[in-house]
Amino acid sequence: MSKFSKWPSDIPIPSVIAALCLAVLTLAVFGQAQNTGPESAIRQYHQALVASPGGNDRGPVMLQQREDVTQPFNQLIEQLLRAGAQVRFGRITKQLPDATVEVAYLRPNGETWAFLYVLRREQGVWRVDVEQTARGSLNRT
């Protein structure tokens, strides 16, 4: 029998169990917190665009948005994502209930598209203001 097959007598089993429970709890809390910020809402918006092309599901976006403004922006972002663009998040500015997030889309051909996303926190959920994001992006040079 190997010398490593026995439990060391100087380490109490309850302490090991407590340490494992604390590690699992810590990972669970950080895992949940990862999906709560403004950048998470943008990721969900991206996933909804790809999962429902041309459809009505846009994920966590603000309601009552003007389609003539949002539709071209949604199509552009969907095209960038489908073309394999890598998404890079930049500076995040929070002034509750609003936030802005710099997002760059790096296309495989080296081209970069950058937008300043506008978000609002409503009833504890971050929502993308696609209309404001599109308006600000279209006005930028």
Summarize this structure briefly.
The protein contains 4 helices and 4 strands, in the order αααββββα.
What class would the helix/strand composition place it in? alpha+beta
The third-level CATH topology is Nuclear Transport Factor 2, Chain: A
| Name given to the CATH architecture | Roll
Query: Could you estimate the helical fraction of the residues in percent?
Result: 40-55%
Major sheet: size, sense and barrel closure? 4 strands, antiparallel
Q: Regarding CATH, which class? A: Alpha Beta
- Our count of helices gives 4
Strand element count: 4
The order of strands across the largest sheet is 1-2-3-4
Report the radius of gyration as a whole number of Å. Answer: 22 Å
Shape: elongated
- Beta-strand percentage? 15-25%
The N- and C-terminal alpha carbons lie at a distance of 73 Å
Low-confidence blocks of residues:
none
Taken in chain order, the helices and strands follow as HHHEEEEH
Q: Would you tell me the overall average pLDDT?
A: 82
Number of domains: 1
